[in-house]
Amino acid sequence: MRKRYTVEERQRLLSEVQSTGEGVAAVAKRLGVTPSAAYLWIKEAASKASAPVFARVVQSPAITTRASIVVEIGAATIRVESGFDAELLRSVVAALGGAT
User: Domain locations in the chain?
Assistant: First the structure.
């Protein structure tokens, strides 16, 4: 019968691999987790971290003299005008919706 691991056990393994820099197999052995399960958890965590975040872009109803778009992320609405700071926009989108 397979051992069922708790969410806390999975999180502990992931955080120890990230914080200590040890190999996955070494951390798994120390925590009493099978290496195959540990590698699977690492793979799942990586795929969740790289999942795309989608934003809805809507046409601005207001007529402005500058070119602009409106980006909606969840309940937040961001008006982006020409000449915007792209790095700042990436940071704001990441803070509102996860990864960029």
Answer: 7-49, 56-97
